[in-house]
Write a structure and sequence with these properties.
The complex is a heterotrimer of chains A (156), B (245) and C (49). Chain A has 156 residues and is α+β, with helices and mostly antiparallel strands. Chain A has helices at residues 2-29, 31-34, 40-44, 131-143, and strands at residues 54-60, 66-67, 73-79, 84-90, 102-109, 114-122. Chain A has a 5-stranded mixed β-barrel with strand order 1-3-4-6-5. Chain B is 77% helix and 0% strand. Chain B has one domain (57-186, 195-237). By secondary structure, chain C is mainly α. Chain C contains 2 helices and no strands. The N and C termini of chain C lie far apart (59 Å). Classes of the chains: A alpha+beta (156), B mainly alpha (245), C mainly alpha (49).
């Protein structure tokens, strides 16, 4: 009886270890497909699909948002802090869209290196705080020398 | 310790033991839930970035945590059911599947209602959302086994195996936002010198998390006791226990 | 009160999320408690036969 229990236990553990390995390998092989978006750097190195819609993600470059005369089309720079790319989108942007904010856009490249987006979604981070705290954190951050600001959640 | 656990695994003893706890658990759940709701909806400050829609966090995050926690409990019970072949652990597996499915569905629905005002979309096939949906299907699969296989002991064994295999999905859900790029934000850093949630918002969240835990235990005990009664309906002790009614 | 319901324009999302969650939690609890009565009735009936 005892040894039977032990056998069943070993069987389950072996089964789980085997399955985990198989799953890990499968997920590793599929990682490109599971990734939700490409980065501007990948656009430069040509790692993005051609003739097909894809998603691109990054931060909206501060000071790059330009509204066209029609009031609906917006051009903005998108960066992964390494490379940046111009994104053009016609339509209403989500509430959380702002400079310095993470966004994910779906669309494709035109011939001139501009990403024509059909959909723009705003990403937000895992930091939650009241506006006063965010403001004082930003003030504090502005008064200390650069390079020391890695402490604490990111200010807006 | 082992003797105590063995006694607890007897259905009769477990029925009597859990019955004493249910009213207390329900009371604690109700109090915590009301405190958490009041704190989260009315007292906690507005978020600097998301404004008011972040308040969905107070139900979304506990539901999502519970969807994974209940699965872990279910898989653990499944392991015990397969190795020691105790009836009680089979009952826990089948009851956890129903409760876990509810928490998963709630996490998905509240997540969608949070996604629309913040991201700009209800749904997107991102790694976190997809793996959570797979979790829901795993729960459905385990529930379905009990309606397909009539004999409860056989059904219990098959359900336990599926529960154990599906545990692989839990680390995938947790790390999905770390391993792959996604729209869903990264996991909260709660246990760190600089938690990513401000204390004024964190405390109501923790109250809600404990409330959800207590709710889970209450509902599990109530459902488990029903199932014990039903399975043991032909035994003497059940007839005796019910004679007072 | 008005302000609380509208919640800065996000009221629909926040309140429906809370409503769905709380209703589900309560219904699950109540229906589980009701089931006990049904089971007891079933057992009683089988005893009488």
């Amino acid at each position: 009886m005892r040894t039977q229990r032990k056998q069943r236990m070993i069987f389950i553990v072996v089964l789980l270890v085997g399955l985990s390995c198989a799953t890990a390998l499968a997920l590793y092989a599929m990682r490109q497909n599971i990734m939700l978006f490409h980065t501007p750097s990948e656009v430069y190195t040509g790692k993005v699909p051609e003739n097909r819609l894809f998603r691109i993600g990054g931060l909206v470059v501060v000071g790059s948002v330009v509204k066209a005369d029609d009031g609906l089309t917006t051009d903005f720079g998108l960066t992964d802090l390494n490379q940046s790319i111009t994104v053009r989108y016609t339509g209403l942007l989500p509430d959380l869209f702002r400079e310095g904010q993470g966004i994910v856009a779906q669309g494709s490249l035109d011939g001139h290196g501009v990403f024509i987006a059909q959909e723009v979604l705003a990403k937000h981070d895992e930091n939650y705080m009241p506006p006063e705290v965010a403001a004082s954190l930003k003030q504090y951050r502005d008064t200390i020398p650069k390079g020391m600001s890695g402490y604490g959640p990111k200010a807006p | 310790m082992w003797k105590y656990l063995h006694r607890l695994s007897s259905l009769k003893y477990c029925y009597e033991w859990s019955g004493k706890w249910v009213p207390w658990l329900l009371g604690v759940t109700a109090v915590l839930m009301l405190v958490g709701l009041y704190w989260g909806l009315l007292v906690a400050p507005t978020d600097y970035q998301q404004g008011e829609s972040y308040r969905i966090m107070y139900i979304h995050v506990p539901s999502a945590w519970m969807s994974m926690f209940v699965y872990a409990v279910m898989a653990g019970a499944g392991f015990v059911a397969l190795v020691w072949k105790t009836k009680l652990s089979e009952i826990i597996v089948s009851e956890c599947a129903v409760i876990g499915a509810m928490f998963t569905a709630l996490a998905l629905i509240t997540g969608m209602l949070w996604g629309k005002p913040t991201w700009g979309t209800y749904w997107l096939w991102d790694a976190r959302l997809t793996s959570e949906l797979i979790l829901l299907f795993l729960y459905f699969g385990i529930i379905a086994i009990h309606s397909v296989i009539e004999e409860p002991r056989t059904a219990g064994r098959v359900a336990s195996i599926l529960a154990i295999i599906g545990i692989i999905n839990i680390p995938i859900i947790h790390y999905s936002v770390t391993w792959w790029s996604s729209l869903h934000q990264p996991n909260m850093q709660l246990v760190s010198k600089t938690p990513s949630v401000h204390p004024s918002m964190l405390y109501p969240l923790l109250v809600m998390a404990v409330a959800f835990q207590m709710y889970f235990v209450s509902l599990l005990f109530i459902r488990m006791r029903n199932e014990i009664l039903y399975r043991e309906r032909l035994t003497k002790w059940v007839k005796k226990a019910l004679a007072g009614h | 009160m008005q302000e609380l319901l509208i919640l800065d324009g996000k009221g629909f999302y926040v309140w429906s999320a809370y409503a769905i969650t709380m209703i589900s939690l309560v219904v699950a609890l109540v229906s589980a408690s009701m089931r006990k009565k049904k089971i007891i009735k079933e057992i009683d009936e089988s005893l009488e036969q």
